[in-house]
Amino acid sequence: MVLGAASAARLDHLTQGYQGGSGTPFHYENVNNGDGSYRYSYDTPTGISAHESGAPRAPGPEGPAVTAEGGFSFRTIDGQQISLTYTADENGFHPVGSHLPTPPPIPEAILRSIEFNRQNPSSDTQREYKTLEQGSRKDGDG
Questions:
Q1: Per-residue confidence (pLDDT) for residue 98, from 0 to 100
Q2: How far is CA 11 from the centre of its chain?
Q3: Which of 9, 22, 75, 128 holds its CA 20 to 30 A away from the CA of 62?
Q4: Which UniProt keyword terms apply here (predicted)?
Q5: Which 3 state secondary structure label does DSSP give 62?
């Protein structure tokens, strides 16, 4: 997470191509508490903002791993506001934003079929599962 704090220190690249953008933040905070916890935030005159905070909370192979939460927002050249929030922890990076693609909903008929199959497994399905299970034992996988 030091990378995130280090990249926040240089902001001139964020305003290239925008008219009137000096790149100088009108709000900037970068706090490293010395115990692995930190927070940073900034806002630029062009409306770009970002923030993040983190601390060693999750167990990791080399000691506590840093978990972080934060977000950023900016306006695209065509005027669309982009905002993203995220958490990053032992289970990965989890972004949330209305601009991110999402899978279509599962049709109701498919959901009913899945539930029916779960409640009524066929003997063929059970037999196939047992065959697959026995085959993997023979191969040394199980």
A1: 86
A2: 23
A3: 9
A4: Cuticle, Signal
A5: coil
Residue matched to tokens 């995220």:
86
Profile the chain (142 residues) by mean pLDDT over runs of 10 residues: 42 50 72 92 90 88 87 91 92 89 90 90 66 57 48
Tell the burial category of 85 from Cβ atoms under 10 Å away from its Cβ (0-12, 13-18, 19+): middle
Asked if residues 99 and 73 have their Cβ atoms less than 8 Å apart, the reply is no
The whole-angstrom separation of Cα 83 and Cα 100 is 10
At 20, list the tokens: 């009137």
Query: In this predicted structure, what is the pLDDT of residue 55?
Result: 93
Quick check: pTM over 0.70?
no
Tokens 């008929």 correspond to: 109
Task: Give the closest residue to 33 by CA, choosing from 11, 5, 8, 58.
Answer: 5
31: how many CB neighbours lie within 10 A of its CB?
12
Q: Whole-angstrom Cα distance, residue 142 to residue 78? A: 56
Assign 44 to helix, strand or coil.
coil
- In order of 16, 28, 117, the CA distances from 77 in angstroms are 12, 24, 50
